[in-house]
Amino acid sequence: MARVVVDVMLKPEILDPQGQAVQRALPRLGFDGITDVRQGKRFELELEGPVDEAALARIREAAESFLANTVIEDFTVRVEAEGEK
Amino acid sequence: MARVVVDVMLKPEILDPQGQAVQRALPRLGFDGITDVRQGKRFELELEGPVDEAALARIREAAESFLANTVIEDFTVRVEAEGEK
User: Fold this and answer.
1) Does B45 touch chain A (CB under 8 A)?
2) Cβ(B48)–Cβ(A35) under 8 Å?
3) Per the record, what is one GO cellular component (chains A, B) (predicted)?
4) CA-CA distance, B5 to A59, in Å (whole number)?
5) How many Å apart are CA A37 and CA A31, to the nearest integer?
6) A68 — contact with chain B (CB < 8 Å)?
7) Domain boundaries in chain B?
8) A-chain residues within 8 Å CB-CB of B40?
9) What percentage of chain B carries pLDDT values higher than 70?
10) Are B4 and B67 in contact (CB under 8 A)?
């Protein structure tokens, strides 16, 4: 069983109100020195079978077609190494 | 300028209806072989200054106190390597 992680983030040019809200809250809570915050989604997919190029291609297709809205979001697909947290 | 990533995921024992909805949709859309999906949040924080142990400790504190709800969520803090996407 292997884990593939799909990270979906708003494109840099798209306004991110959730991230901005976090960024503005940080100094009030005593955390300085953080100049920007972006908030996105993380999907952890458990695959049965080997994570070969074909499996990753299918996951990229799934990410593109319905995990991310590629008009406003970028996504990355990566295999999480064994034991990585 | 360095980027620190905070991943926030529901604890394994907590029901994840968003992830389940994605998992159930996948076979209908023609993607088989995915046995489990968990959906969480990803925060990208841009720091000014060095990312030393003190800075990471502050970010862990911020993550624990208000990025994650540690009753139901786990979080991880990591420095994103230069040039990593």
Assistant:
1) yes
2) yes
3) cytoplasm
4) 22
5) 13
6) no
7) 2-79
8) 41-44
9) 95
10) no
Tokens at A31, concatenated: 């955390």
Write the pLDDT tens digit of every residue in B40-73.
999 999 998 888 999 999 999 999 998 999 999 9
Give the whole-angstrom CA distance, residue A66 versus residue A57. 14
One digit per residue, the tens of pLDDT, for chain A of length 85 reads 799 999 999 999 999 999 999 999 999 988 889 999 999 999 999 998 888 999 999 999 999 999 999 999 999 999 987 655 4
C-beta pairs of B22-27 under 8 Å, 24+ apart in sequence = B22/A43, B22/A67, B25/A66, B26/A62
CB A9 within 8 A of CB A37: no
Q: A30: nearest CA in chain B?
A: B62
Q: Rounded to a whole number, what is the distance in angstroms from the first to the last CA of chain A?
A: 15
- CATH number belonging to the domain at A2-79, selected among 3.40.190.150, 3.40.190.170, 2.60.120.560, 3.30.1280.10: 3.30.1280.10
What would the DSSP string read from start to end of A20-46?
HHHHHHHHHTT---EEEEEEEEEEEEE
Separation in Å, CA of A7 to nearest CA in chain B: 8
